[in-house]
Batch of 2 targets.
Target 1
Amino acid sequence: MANGATTNPLDPEEFRRQGHMVIDFIADYYKNIEKYPVLSQVEPGYLKKRLPTSAPFYPESIETILGDVQEHIVPGITHWQSPNYFAYFPSSGSIAGFLGEMLATGFNVVGFNWMSSPAATELESIVMDWLGQMLRLPKSFLFSGNGGGVLQGTTCEAILCTLVAARDRTLRIIGNENIGKLVVYCSDQTHCAFKKAAQIAGIHPDNFKVIPTTLSSSFSMSPKALRNTITADVEAGLVPIFLLATVGTTSTTAVDPLGPLCDVAKDYGMWVHVDAAYAGSICICPEFRHFIDGVEGANSFSFNAHKWFFTTLDCCCLWVKDPTALTQSLSTDPEYLKNKATESKQVVDYKDWQLALSRRFRSLKLWLVLRSYGVEKLRGFLRSHVKMAKLFQGFVEADERFEVVVPRNFATLCFRISPSALTTNNNAILSEINGSRRISDTSPKKMVTENELNNKLMDSINRSGRVYMTHSVVGGIFLLRFAVGASLTEESHVIEAWNVVKQQADIILNSHHSEF
Amino acid sequence: MANGATTNPLDPEEFRRQGHMVIDFIADYYKNIEKYPVLSQVEPGYLKKRLPTSAPFYPESIETILGDVQEHIVPGITHWQSPNYFAYFPSSGSIAGFLGEMLATGFNVVGFNWMSSPAATELESIVMDWLGQMLRLPKSFLFSGNGGGVLQGTTCEAILCTLVAARDRTLRIIGNENIGKLVVYCSDQTHCAFKKAAQIAGIHPDNFKVIPTTLSSSFSMSPKALRNTITADVEAGLVPIFLLATVGTTSTTAVDPLGPLCDVAKDYGMWVHVDAAYAGSICICPEFRHFIDGVEGANSFSFNAHKWFFTTLDCCCLWVKDPTALTQSLSTDPEYLKNKATESKQVVDYKDWQLALSRRFRSLKLWLVLRSYGVEKLRGFLRSHVKMAKLFQGFVEADERFEVVVPRNFATLCFRISPSALTTNNNAILSEINGSRRISDTSPKKMVTENELNNKLMDSINRSGRVYMTHSVVGGIFLLRFAVGASLTEESHVIEAWNVVKQQADIILNSHHSEF
């Protein structure tokens, strides 16, 4: 025993006793989850008022601690696992994902290289090939085709790793002193992770080029606009190195045309990374696979299994065609990690495929998800979410006060109170908000007002605690995002969510109306 | 239900049933852990031969899967939780750490900003202040003193974040076009994570300056040598921005003199980060606190709670004096994340303190560790590990064939078969290995031979499967590292480990000897 008379901190029987208690705690949490407001209703600083100002000197019992979790932590949680959660993108938990995380935590190995735990490395390579096959990725992305997959924590890391690989590939040719000439490209819909990655990688801020998109093209990136920008940059003596294309943008789940974009990039020898963080999952369904057509022209592809693939946070799946490009930038070889397996070159050392040295045994949870549900059930789960999003879409389309802002691609619907509804039926509302301004005014100022109304709708929906959804603004339009994907969500929850939207819209519209 | 007739992937009762099974599986694993060879004995590619080449189409039962974990995964695991694990640095698990991870996985919130789950942010800030107090960090590192703490995944991330903050702080003054002039400093004992971070951050490879260390100063960094290097760089027109100082290096747990190093750095306006990844933990014991004396002159400080603080991987604790420097480099503000709490500036949004956007609820496990054990027991656990390392040191010192290579600071002992033992008692061995070379030869070639013998000793120890320890090479000396810290380790395991070392040394030395 580590500390004389005290219990060992990893005593198996005490582990068993407390472990069972926490399993029951979490099972009860799921059972009762609908009792809590989806969006936490606490005020900033709430927890400081409830907890001591310093750590306890003497041990406290698990019973006391779990009591405090229930009393003080649960009220401060926004319940991403709630069936009434439709915000951001899902963080879809599952039993299999949870159990895989438990096993990884139980083994608690630090799998930086093959030798430090061979199973951690080998299972990851195997599972990434499995998943690559399920997505019908070109063989060149799989280990079986001299590419390979790796589990990163997040898409942010996947982007930074591939960007650094692309950067160094070019700098090895033109010299490190030319880092200021490197240019990277994306659209105005690309996730903010890319701008941050470029900043971290030392790309000059002026050389972060953003291609504008429009509502008329559903906010997808224009290959022509990309080519024009690149041409001008090359003429100015700059060196294009990297394009980030997105399948399923965060604001509206827009899809960039991979084939034509890769064709442009190819002409300039650029690295193309495809960020399918959200939408990648559903491409395991044959009828959705076309959304990643053209991926064969890209250099790397990633999606988040922790978003909409039942694998708990964090688990981003990244495939690259040329692992050597990654390892040339990210390898380390200190004496204290040297070993015969590495020297034999028969093994993968994943520390050289990622930012950090240490890494968790993440492939276990992905393996458990794939095996527990199989391809068939996974497709079924995802299709059921799309079906529920369609159901919600039907409600929106049937109510003339509302409109769908952009066509739905997956299980996320972008909608709002329609401006036409406002001008035709609720002149009073706008005239009240606009004051002396005429209702037929189509100036940006009017749009701001429509946006304010939709913002108000969202706030009132979320304050109800009954559902949670979030927003974006694209092309100046404030829209509400209804993202289906929480594992516990059933059709009844979607119907109820629509009722909440309608009720809140009634209150907002009628209260204003009745004032006139 | 998500998929008609099938069970919901997060059904509470099925969760309960399977969760209890896995708790028992892991409890049994800990109970039986000594039955397995500590270092996995599998060959590269072992798992591919045992698993199917593609994911199953139909679901498989948890019983089948757990059977496969036992049969196919466990043999490929290097058992970091084994009481006979003394390799690298510990990955010290605990019941509390495990349960905290379970709760975080169960809630599965994505706490990128305050609003996305207020408890995740607030508990982290509170716990980081608690822990900062336990370490007697200057108040300027705590939220209560306008600094603040954040949980990163790994030290690699902590270093990269602080380096980028320091880089951009300077670039804002001298202009982005001068990135090629920036210089960073460390010693030849600094963890390889720093070189990788500098590479990722776009620091010119020529400007990564390594200060040599020597055995005579126990491999700690010389402030004088640092100043000389910086002076020369400044004269050459370069701009010093960052110093990485280490408390407890990976090879020998050497300690850089923080006070004098910070004094040098201060003269040049450099950022100093203190990497106490391993040794930071034990600085909660008053008698060890002096090892981080001088930290008040640094800009940031980090240690890994997942190494030697009973908190499962991953959990790196980072404190900074100037959070604004971090957030100026790492902030993002996309429309889809805008919210009133952020706009009120009353909250911390941790996404702006780290590389990635998404983040797990890591503070839960740290909170559970602090509360379950309290300051008293945590100190007791750590002191027991130091005591066991001392016990092992006694064995080494009492056996004239062995020597301690550098003075022990913490719970890691660096030792080897002594060269004097070889020359006085085992001339035959060396003459056999050296062939015609004279035994009194003190050339590098002789040292290589001594090193080969110690390498052979390590290999035979690890191949026995009874214990696992790793090596390093410092100042040309191959040494074995005996790192105590696995939670299940008791004195009996240390005694047994020494027996293994002795037995293997006997075999190696005698087999050679008997040939003559």
Note: Chain A touches chain B through 165 residues (CB under 8 Å).
Target 2
Amino acid sequence: MATASRAGTRLDLYRDLARQLRVDSIRCSTAAGSGHPTSSLSAADLMAVLLAGHLRYDYANADDPANDHLIFSKGHASPLVYAMFRAAGAITDEELLTFRKLGSRLEGHPTPLLPWVDVATGSLGQGLPIGVGIALAGKRPLAAPYHVWILVGDSETAEGSIWEAFDHGGHEGLSNLTAILDINRLGQRGPTELQWDTAAYAARIRAFGWDAIVIDGHDLAAVDDALGRARGSERPTAIVAKTVKGKGVSFLEDKEGWHGKALDKDQAAQALKELGAERARTFDVAKPPRWMPPAFKRTPPHLATYGEPVATRKAYGEAIAALGAAREDVVALDAEVSNSTHAEDFKKTAPDRFFEMYIAEQQMVAAAVGMQVVGLVPFASTFAAFFTRAYDFIRMAAISRANIRLSGSHAGVSIGEDGPS
Amino acid sequence: MATASRAGTRLDLYRDLARQLRVDSIRCSTAAGSGHPTSSLSAADLMAVLLAGHLRYDYANADDPANDHLIFSKGHASPLVYAMFRAAGAITDEELLTFRKLGSRLEGHPTPLLPWVDVATGSLGQGLPIGVGIALAGKRPLAAPYHVWILVGDSETAEGSIWEAFDHGGHEGLSNLTAILDINRLGQRGPTELQWDTAAYAARIRAFGWDAIVIDGHDLAAVDDALGRARGSERPTAIVAKTVKGKGVSFLEDKEGWHGKALDKDQAAQALKELGAERARTFDVAKPPRWMPPAFKRTPPHLATYGEPVATRKAYGEAIAALGAAREDVVALDAEVSNSTHAEDFKKTAPDRFFEMYIAEQQMVAAAVGMQVVGLVPFASTFAAFFTRAYDFIRMAAISRANIRLSGSHAGVSIGEDGPS
């Protein structure tokens, strides 16, 4: 009885929070006159259970290195993430209602202007590969206690970069990484490719080396169980949650034509009535364990000086190897050409801080972005032409003000006999 | 007995051709002093059986619209594709030996300077998504008899774009498309992520809706059987072929450090001795069936004139809809935002020539490139910022001299409330 009662209390708490997140997602987007409330409503139950039951995050100390990481890869569900910040007491209701207004920190898509946001998202397919970088850093150089949670939209799984992330996460066995897939069936212009075929999603993800847990994303007990299993798993886990876009509001549920549209005032009033708006409150979020990152050696590097002209890539390899020897916070990533870019020099010096990203430039740049989130100093290299594969990731990295170093070799007008490709 | 004898003859033919392809791959790269002979040797058996037993291609009439299509997604195996052209009688031995020389059509990576090459490859992960476009065009507007064969390297399966192609090929049920995966275990700098785990490759590919046939890529009878099944399959098929890099030459087989290196003259002499160089000859390649594409209506479009200013995307939608009504060779592709780019206007006019590519910009641009290979006139649209996801595909499309039209909406300094992402 006691257990059942505690479980009941816990589920009641989740239900209250989920309702508040829905209400606030609608309120702030209606106040803005734009935004993505229906994409927020589908994931509200998932995020309520995460925030109140599983996330370990000190919202008063966003810089705590032990904090979990939560990234909305589907950044357009920003009303939901801002509603979470409000529920956690990080922002006020007044600020919540500045959403999308000129000068507000609460932009249409989340950016690190907010201390609780690691990276800018909105351009789809980027949050999960960045999460791979944070999880990699947590596993290897940092040995950190944090867990990385990524909310992934179903539409964005059409992006190849998502599969680079599943591939890499599986290959590296990132047990500290959980992808929460919000399978709400509807994209911007209509049904997604796989709609509610959660078995197809799960089969693909498992084939890439992850655990996959298929649940009803509105069954709070099932969400609770899945999130608990995900944190405890020995492999990266995807929670494949079947959800309903616009869930909780009769005239929005599973309806086409509502993507990226705010409710008008009358519609919002009707929605809040259906949801049963109660007085908003602050919810407790578990604090992370006490933990500090290793005290990395940071000494001045012994850089070579050259009397004769030297190939830039040779000098690059020697320089990052020297940096790697002098500074333990420096990491190097390469896209399967380290023998050409000379990043292999770093690998010889600091093999535990060298990351082979294979031929996946989007994932490589995203991993670098993720690693700098947790204070590492990443150098990423490939042939210059191939960095354009990650063009949009580099653009978004700039919006994130990410502190990364990209080194493209074999640049210039022509590389000769190999031809223009 | 007669059957066994015929099969024996057939396998002898394949063996002879495979030997010649290996010999010529080594000869031309050694003459050039650079190139990728070992990446060619691993796929020589696969390509010998394809060329002599399954491809339907009139090398004297590269413009025959009924010709099959063969693309080396692993374009660095150019010595092999040029050796195939020589074996088919398309180029002379003299020209073969101009490989990688200034002024030669035989560049380091294949380009459409050669009439038998559809598109430039070399930047990895592009041939398969382009093949999806050719197969889509063959299936829908053209109802063509051709089959599309793509030689895919194992290293390049780390590129997300390959999974966009598997995703899209499976979704569209492209039974006229076969991916031949050359799983030779070694990339440029060392082992690939999955090495010889052909079961893992097959599981991933099957999860994306393809048939997968796992074979020993040096067992000529198995290759023959797999290629036959692939052409006859009702679904897109991947032949997952376990191969040995450098196969056929003792000091190259499965050896690291040989990627992208030509043999010197002594090494080449030794290799040719091992292979048993015989007098080169021309091999018969099956001709395609007689077939001509539909006689598409091509009338001048009735384009609207505007007295008042009009949003460019609205005008775009109306213009391509008018074009689609007037010209049956015009096709439109969109990356899941057709209600914003107004490409949906085209869909209403010509639904059978509208291609929903979902949020997969690389695959969308690649499909457009593939469709123009077979004479269609593609218009592809998404938000301008997201075309950068396909930056390298657009760069390669230019090298291919591809005739495509890309329309990016929502461009400019800022798009306002949605924020910078």
Note: The mean pLDDT of chain B is 96.
